[in-house]
Design brief:
Length: about 425
């Protein structure tokens, strides 16, 4: 009997993990440049954490959550997103005590039972950030700048779309206007949208089905219904973005899939991705902390997908060389292999990556292995070398071969030989 990974999940194989590590490191670096600190929450939460925040009538809660009852009878859910867990943790550990703004970031797997297709998995990986405790439009702009900076560093082109979804004062009036409009065009809508039109009309604008898009082309725009506070906020975000040289396109239909957004909503789309073109997105959620039972605390955040990033990188033909082996040690007889193992450990203790053969293979196949692994140097040890107290070193880039004492070879990595320090990875 053979097993396969579950539909919609993927193994990240050793050939792929170097690029994951490279991108994860880059994301961490960018987060820390922007003074965000990492938070790690459990993979699962009580189901209510998600239902309450994301909203009952969303795709995620309605049909995509991996929910199960544990042996104690508690309903648990594998996290489909991270804003709700972060806010749960923020309140549980009183991170907001003493005022100030909490800038938190995360990365890790998320779970949604979606129909698997290119760029859409059931276990996928996100990174994201939440800035909790300020209502300033400067925070919205900063978090957009942070998300954009990752793409800039990776040379991934994007289109930034922004909109305002208003707040609890102006949205009800818009919702009514939209519902009136949808009622007039209802026979042109899909069944799903006809149902949503009553429960959550804004979500109809989020439909990706061409019939719905066509039927709602003339729908009223939230931007025309914003109250003064929301309009001023939106204009201020746009002006900050301009000041930060980040071009943004106003997209009046952008509502995003979660219910908790207020004011700013934004999305990064890739011109290279086709149907699943969303690289990431986010928005302001000024009421969520309160809904979780905390004091009224404004916040803004975003989440972005790793898998989509890799697809965008591939389309651009970008390659990550990732981590390469520095030294491969070739032993030609048993005492030499013993020496290789010892020397590999010495090099590793110096911070130099090293590996050796464990299958007693021939010189030829060990050399082939060193080549395949992209080693910078191969060190060959046989009985002759051992007798003379030397090793044969082959520089795999130039092909040059020389004989030297091991201590002299090691000195190459510490710069003690007076020459330039060779590359370690
Ligand atoms: P969302 O929270 O739905 O706005 O998702 C934020 C980002 O996560 C999206 O823009 C995608 O890049 C990524 N993402 C969301 N769902 C999936 C999925 N099922 N498979 C792969 N990536 C996803």
């Amino acid at each position: 009997m053979t097993y396969q990974s579950v539909k919609g999940t993927k193994d990240i194989l050793p050939e792929e993990s170097p690029r994951w590590q490279a991108v994860e490191n880059l994301v961490r670096e960018v987060m820390e440049l922007f003074a965000y600190r990492e938070i790690r929450t459990p993979i699962f939460e009580e189901t209510a954490v998600f239902v309450r925040s994301i909203g009952e009538d969303t795709d995620i809660v309605g049909k995509e959550m991996y929910t199960f009852t544990d042996k104690g009878g508690t309903s648990l859910t594998l996290r489909p997103e991270m804003t709700a867990p972060v806010i749960r943790a923020y309140l549980q550990h009183s991170l907001g005590t003493g005022g100030g703004v909490q800038k938190l970031y995360y990365m890790g797997p998320m779970f949604r039972q979606e129909r698997p297709q290119a760029g859409r998995l059931r276990q996928f990986h996100q990174y994201g950030a939440e800035c909790i405790g300020s209502s300033s439009p400067a925070c919205d702009a900063e978090i957009i700048a942070l998300a954009a900076h990752v793409y800039d560093r990776l040379d991934i082109p994007y289109v930034l779309k922004i909109n305002s979804v208003g707040n609890e004062r102006c949205r009800p009036r818009y919702r009514e206007a939209l519902r009136d409009f949808l009622t007039r065009v209802s026979e042109r809508l899909t069944g799903e949208s006809r149902r949503r039109m009553h429960t959550n009309p804004l979500r109809v604008l989020d439909s990706k089905v061409p019939e719905d898009i066509e039927a709602t082309a003339e729908a009223p725009r939230m931007l025309d219904y914003l109250c003064d506070e929301c309009r001023e906020h939106f204009e201020a975000v746009r002006s900050h973005l301009e000041n930060l040289d980040i071009p943004a396109r106003v997209e009046p239909r952008l509502v995003r899939g979660l219910d908790y957004y207020t004011k700013t909503a934004f999305e990064f789309a890739s011109p290279d991705l086709g149907a699943q073109d969303a690289l990431g997105g986010g928005g302001r959620y000024d009421r969520l902390v309160e809904e979780f039972g905390g004091d009224s605390t404004p916040a803004v955040g975003f989440a972005a997908g790793f898998e989509r990033l890799f697809i965008a990188l591939e389309r651009r033909g970008s390659r990550f060389s990732g981590h390469r082996l520095s030294v491969y040690l070739v032993g030609l007889d048993e005492p030499s292999r013993r020496l290789c193992l010892r020397e590999a450990l010495t090099l590793r203790r110096m911070g130099v990556s090293a590996d050796c053969d464990f299958q007693q293979r021939s010189l030829k196949s060990q050399m082939r292995e060193a080549n395949k692994r992209g080693a910078a140097y191969t060190v060959i040890i046989g009985s002759e070398e051992r007798e003379r107290g030397v090793v044969t070193v082959k520089d795999m880039t130039t092909g040059m071969q020389e004989t030297m004492e091991l201590s002299l070879f090691r000195a190459r990595f510490t710069g003690e030989d007076g020459g330039a320090k060779p590359r370690r990875d």
